[in-house]
Amino acid sequence: MVGVARPLTIALLLAIAVLGSSTAATAARWIPWPTATWQLQFSGTIDVTVRADIFDLDMFDTSRRLVRKVHASGHHAICYINAGAWESWRPDAADFPSNVKGRDLDGWPGEKWLDIRRLDALGPILLKRVRLCRDKGFDGVEFDNVDGYQNATGFNLSASDQLAFDRWLADTAHANGLSVGLKNTLGLVASSSRASTSRSSSNASCITSVP
Hints:
Helix content is 23%, strand content 20%. By secondary structure, the protein is of the alpha/beta class. It has one domain (6-188): TIM Barrel. Strand 7 and strand 8 (111-114) form a beta hairpin.
């Protein structure tokens, strides 16, 4: 399914000022702009002729060749990574210890919340994902489910726990030359000037900017 690109409807927050980034490091990375249009598509055939500035695509399911095709068609590409939840179908699913997996995500079969305090276990797995995103040629990364502290995860997560995890994600992505998006974590970044709220359909999400 091909969606219609609109001025920012997922709510992506660019993790630059809020989560920390040096001016020099920021200058070396591609940075999305507030009025950019987005095409979010995590299944089906990707149509690179869609009129959108940025394509948000699944990191595992998208090939290096497709990322090159997106770029050749005049778009930027960011990869989707579910950082705060385990997904049973992913190729690295067996790498997650059982004691970091919590309650099921409501409405998302095969997904479980993660204990984000356990960077000793999660860090190496997520680092491999970020490096794969980088090696495929993506310009940035969208981290999903980084709002566990506001949900019934099965773990006693605090806002401080979440902020530490989110900062680790941002630092890790920045260290690999990627811009960063965090989805559904407005409670921690109300002061950010670049935030939005997510709304999804069965096939894709469309995007609307929030002032």
